[in-house]
Amino acid sequence: MDTDGQTLGVTVEVVGWRLTPHPQVPADGDKVHFDYRFDGTGEPRGPVVDACAVDQDRVALRCTTVDAAGAWPEPDGTRTGDDWLGVDHPRRVAAVLFLPNDQSYDRPSCATDPKDGGGKHPPKSASTGDQL
User: N or C: at which end does the chain have fewer Cβ atoms within 10 angstroms?
Assistant: First the structure.
């Protein structure tokens, strides 16, 4: 949904995740490797979400930004991809969650906002330690 509550018609889901060493740095130990799918983006440039590895209490252990533009187009119109998260204690990871945080479109800054300096602001990105 956009900031006015209108459905954008785009979904993104975690298709799966696993703990495994990154192939380029296997000596660093297990990382969270997750696969995802965007549906309904309709164009290469699409929405952005925060991806967070969380523990059983849904406390973020590590987060990153995932952009539909970084995913591969599939014949069915979806876009798929994968990414990695390095966490301090990989065995504590219980899930990978996506949070809406689309900041892909241009909007005025507070300093140039013609109103009273308020207006719409992008959400604060999720970060380590946040309860989600």
Answer: N
